[in-house]
């Protein structure tokens, strides 16, 4: 292993000296830390080695004239269902959808079957992803009563994105709602802990409402604002007690945003494209249970508050919460129908359309999908286009007008709530560590995905 690395290093040193790159991206408008820059990107050995291709030759050249080149989009919340639920999704199709949608790295969630609760569960996912993932990946460890005391160790394992806690039951059996269990989880570990904040006791109490009506329009009535706010306040309190950093996933209410605005020093905030794009009751009338998601898509004034929170800087990252279920499953009568929709492939097209509509700037989008996750989670070498960083690039055409269709979906579930929607702004090519893996809606080459490295996970001595 060590010998191979030394040989690879020698080869790279030789090619650096000869100025022969793996890939040059030329002629694009590049979003760098200095702003929009018309420059080239020279990639060698998986890294960016220069931002000026003068004097370089390359095995592959990607012409980006008329395109914007963004740092690779990182989707920090996806459910890829492997192992155990592969009739909905698997690591190959999930990551295929990712790169077709311009995503270069994903954090995958632990509510698979088995749940991800041990080092062996994590290793099994890493083994399954090896050679099959099209983008880079990391896996969350579930936090529960059975592994609370081991979490400080588990969260530092290579390939682990950190600990994820479900305070309210959503899909799968992962649940930690008991005060004592939550306290044990929060106290065992130091990395930023991700949480699905809905109050389980209140959800149970109110489920009869949904059962009585059988109407998906009541989804945000059953899982109401108080369910979300109570859980968010509770976990922020427990994290404060322990001095633990927290990441509140898919925040969906104006009330939570107002509360979280006062806790920004240690608490980070995710919003999803569906909460920013769909609104009740219209989405339920048009899409039925396809719009059913936890926490629910709510009324317009909540969506407006999420957009305000993006503008005010309260929101740190966007995650798709890609949570596929088959159409058959979704067609069961509400509330038996499972919550969840696809999202990894549509995250960027939907958000570019919002950029086109003037709802956020392209710079803010890059902050939410690249710089934001890199900053919060301490990603080694990712999140910006700069010399020395991983050559993860998302090339987009801000003017391309395209239609999102079910046919375009790589997901096993094969549907999107945005079927038939026209958007302006489209991913044209995706580069993962210097490999062009998708271009013009087609996959290229082999799945080259590798585990993401985190600064807070066990350090790999060869990576300095
Ligand atoms: O609607 C949801 N479905 N929300 C979640 O947080 C989990 C997810 C799933 O795994 O299906």
Automatic annotation (TrEMBL):
Q: Does the keyword Hydrolase apply?
A: yes
This entry's Gene Ontology molecular function terms read: allantoinase activity; metal ion binding
What InterPro entries does the record tag this protein with?
Amidohydro-rel, DHOase/Allantoinase_Hydrolase, Dihydroorotase_CS, Metal-dep_hydrolase_composite, Metal_Hydrolase
Q: What is the lineage of its organism?
A: Bacteria, Pseudomonadati, Pseudomonadota, Betaproteobacteria, Burkholderiales
UniProt source species: Bordetella genomosp. 10
Q: What's the protein called, per UniProt?
A: Dihydroorotase
A Gene Ontology cellular component where this protein is annotated is: cytoplasm
Cofactor section: Zn(2+)
The record's annotation in Pfam families points to:
Amidohydro_1 (PF01979)
């Amino acid at each position: 292993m060590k010998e191979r690395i030394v040989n690879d290093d020698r080869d790279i040193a030789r090619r650096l000296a000869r100025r022969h790159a793996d890939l040059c991206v030329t002629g694009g408008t590049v979003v760098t830390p200095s702003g929009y820059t018309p420059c080239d990107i020279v990639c060698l050995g998986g890294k960016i080695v220069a931002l000026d291709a003068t004097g370089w030759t390359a095995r592959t050249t990607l012409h980006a004239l008329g395109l914007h080149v963004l740092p690779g989009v990182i989707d920090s919340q996806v459910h890829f269902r492997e192992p155990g639920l592969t009739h909905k999704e698997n690591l190959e199709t999930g990551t295929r959808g990712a790169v077709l949608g311009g995503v270069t790295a994903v954090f995958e969630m632990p509510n698979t079957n088995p749940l991800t609760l041990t080092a062996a569960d994590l290793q099994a996912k890493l083994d399954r992803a090896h050679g099959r993932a099209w983008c880079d990946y990391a896996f969350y460890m579930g936090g529960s009563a059975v592994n609370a005391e081991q979490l400080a160790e588990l969260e530092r394992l290579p390939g682990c994105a950190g600990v994820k806690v479900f305070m309210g039951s959503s899909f799968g059996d992962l649940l930690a709602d008991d005060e004592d269990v939550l306290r044990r989880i929060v106290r065992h570990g130091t990395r930023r802990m991700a949480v699905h904040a809905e109050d389980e006791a209140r959800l149970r109490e109110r489920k009869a409402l949904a059962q009585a009506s059988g109407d998906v329009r009541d989804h945000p009535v059953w899982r109401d604002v108080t369910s979300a706010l109570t859980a968010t306040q509770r976990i922020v309190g427990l994290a404060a007690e322990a001095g633990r950093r927290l990441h509140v996933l898919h925040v969906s209410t104006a009330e939570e945003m107002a509360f979280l605005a006062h806790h920004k020093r240690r608490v980070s905030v995710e919003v999803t494209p569906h909460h920013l794009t769909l609104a009740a009751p219209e989405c339920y009338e048009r899409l039925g249970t396809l719009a059913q998601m936890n926490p629910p898509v709510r009324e317009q004034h909540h969506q407006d508050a999420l957009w305000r929170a993006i503008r005010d800087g309260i929101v740190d990252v966007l995650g798709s919460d890609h949570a596929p279920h088959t159409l058959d499953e979704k067609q069961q009568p509400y509330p038996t129908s499972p919550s969840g929709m696809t999202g990894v492939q549509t995250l960027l097209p939907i958000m570019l359309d919002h950029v086109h509509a003037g709802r956020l700037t392209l710079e803010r989008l890059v902050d939410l999908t690249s710089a934001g996750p890199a900053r919060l989670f301490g990603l080694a070498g990712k999140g910006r286009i700069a010399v020395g960083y991983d050559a993860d690039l998302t090339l987009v055409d801000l003017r391309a007008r395209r239609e999102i269709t079910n046919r375009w979906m790589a997901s096993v579930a094969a549907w999107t709530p945005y079927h038939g929607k026209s958007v302006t702004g489209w991913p044209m090519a995706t580069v993962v560590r210097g490999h062009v893996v998708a271009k013009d809606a087609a996959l290229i080459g082999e799945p080259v995905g590798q585990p993401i490295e985190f600064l807070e996970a066990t350090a790999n001595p060869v990576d300095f």
